[in-house]
Design a protein that fits this description.
alpha/beta; six-stranded parallel β-sheet; globular; 361 residues; CDP-glycerol glycerophosphotransferase family protein; TagF_C; 2 domains; 32% helix; Glycerophosphate_synth; Rossmann fold; 14 strands
């Protein structure tokens, strides 16, 4: 068991990607410090006994710390790592890599905690391309999903009688902007659903309130906020909102898979540019219809939503089967990490059956 563990969350949503892991390590005798870049008031979980918390901690401050293990969902970190720590990255999405991540974003981590078998395949291919040396793929599972499924079991929340769709487009940045739909199509999609009598919950990505997407988000809210079937969700934790909807409409965002795997309800993916997907790999392109439907135009949107509603029982079974086939340690990812953390500091740096990536530069 590691003696000293340092966790770091840059965004509020990252907390859910670590879930109960810091608490379980503390229960097993490790000193666990959980640093966060945001204020204490924004922390979305209950504090765990035995864990030391700090808030408003800039990334630059980490370089002056020491630890045995460094755990973070921060994507693309390349500097300011705690001294002598083994660096473990927790993925923030269930998607594969194409169209979602810059290829250099994982270069500086020692261990990548993979959610499912698709991640093993994707990172093995990327390792050859990047010439990675001595990197380990940990078959972990997805703590965020496990936490949400526990929460759902005890929540009692249900969707209303009227068809309600949560519209959750991804946050656009230089890698995924060709697949992000908020700017070009968001307003039209919401209008089409409302015009057909479908209730819409608009859940833009938290970052979309702070950058180039903000004028688009504000325009959408201004246009529809008085509509009785329109609701806006700006909460730090979207669980209650999602639990009270029937399906999701998104684009390339991994939230579609998290939603479907948590609630057993379909996700529909608006992807109008089929030609742009040619040659791209990953469940965000190849496996969307395992959890819902693909929509290629605004004209077919409502018909596809109604089709998913009609066949919701079939889709629910299909989603559950795909989830249990795809992901590692369903329901037990956090415990798995706590029980295997010692292997990360062993002479081998991993359990014997975990993939080791060694490729010549």
């Amino acid at each position: 068991m590691p003696r000293d563990v340092l966790c770091y969350c840059y965004h509020v949503s990252h907390v859910l990607n670590l879930g109960r892991i810091p608490a379980l390590l503390a229960e097993r005798g490790a000193r666990v410090r959980w640093f966060n870049a945001f204020p204490e008031s924004a922390f979305p979980l209950e504090r765990a006994p035995g864990v030391e918390y700090a808030f408003d901690v800039p990334l630059q401050a980490l370089g002056g710390q020491e630890a045995d293990l460094y755990l973070t969902p921060f994507v693309g970190q390349s500097a300011h790592f705690p001294q002598r720590a083994r660096r473990v990255h927790f993925l923030v999405s269930l998607t594969g890599l194409d169209g979602v991540y810059d290829k250099a974003m994982f270069d500086h981590y020692d261990v990548i905690a993979c959610a499912g078998r698709h991640h093993i395949d994707d990172f093995t291919a990327l390792a050859r391309e990047r010439g990675w040396q001595h990197k380990v793929l940990m078959p972990l599972g997805y703590p965020k999903l496990d936490g949400q499924r526990r929460q759902l079991a005890g929540s009692g929340l249900r969707a209303p009688d009227k068809l309600t769709v949560v519209f959750a487009p991804t946050h656009a940045y230089y890698i995924n902007q060709g697949f992000s739909i908020l700017n070009r199509y968001g307003e039209q999609l919401i209008a089409a659903m409302l015009d057909d009598g479908i209730s819409v919950v608009f859940r833009p990505h938290m970052e979309s309130w702070r950058d180039q997407d903000r004028p688009v988000v504000e325009r959408i809210v201004a246009r529809f906020q008085a509509h009785p079937d329109f609701a806006l969700d700006r909460s730090g934790n979207y669980f209650d909102t999602y639990a009270q909807t029937h399906m999701m409409l998104t684009d390339i965002s991994g939230t579609g898979f998290t939603y479907a795997f948590t609630f057993g309800r379909p996700a529909l993916f608006f992807a109008p540019n089929a030609a742009d997907e040619a040659g791209l790999r990953g469940i965000q392109f190849e496996r969307r219809e395992n959890i819902g439907l693909v929509v290629r135009s605004i004209d077919e949107l409502v018909a596809r939503l109604r089709l998913a509603q009609t066949h919701s029982d079939f889709l629910q079974r299909q989603i559950a089967e795909f989830r249990d086939w795809l992901l590692f340690n369903p329901g037990g990812s956090e415990t798995f990490f706590a029980e295997h953390a010692h292997a990360l500091l062993s002479a081998q740096g991993a359990a014997p059956d975990w993939p080791h990536l060694h490729h010549p530069v």
